[in-house]
Hints:
This protein is of the alpha+beta class. It has one domain: Alpha-D-Glucose-1,6-Bisphosphate, Chain A, domain 4 (2-Layer Sandwich), CATH 3.30.530. The chain has helices at 26-34, 36-42, 127-135, 138-154, and strands spanning 5-8, 15-22, 49-55, 62-69, 72-84, 88-95, 103-112, 115-123. Strands 1-2-8-7-6-5-4-3 form an 8-stranded antiparallel beta sheet. The longest helix has 17 residues, at 138-154. The radius of gyration is 15 Å and the shape is globular.
Amino acid sequence: xxxxxxxxxxxxxxxxxxxxEFDAPVSAVFKAHVDPDLLAKWLGPRSTVTxxxxxxxxxxxxxxxxxxxxxxxxxxxxxxxTVDADALIIMTFEFDGxxxxxxxxxxxxxxxxxxxxxxxxxxxPSVEARDMALATGMNYGVVEGYERLDELLAA
Length: 155
């Protein structure tokens, strides 16, 4: 059974906060976030395919992937500002369909009783940009992607 994902987007602020626990050690959950081959297996909803074209998950490294289905692929890119193994990833993100709308994501990884708790805080350039991301199904993609990550970690 999957653990619940909590996504919070309070009115009037350009933030999205996500929290989730996984029944796996921190090292495995972190690796699934920084290894491009593993990332492509779980990121996003089941109905999409993710093609990672660049993923240098080191401090100062850049990333780019495309995700989509038969109706089209959508590009995402950014820069890793801080990658602290098994603890922290700080990175920018930008959707190619909304150029110049760069956000900042901080994800922490914490061991809690042999499980892993991740907490992500995303800052968008405006409340409108955040609301546009939410309206495109971001919540659904995050929840289903984490369910896919559960399956990958259990395998």
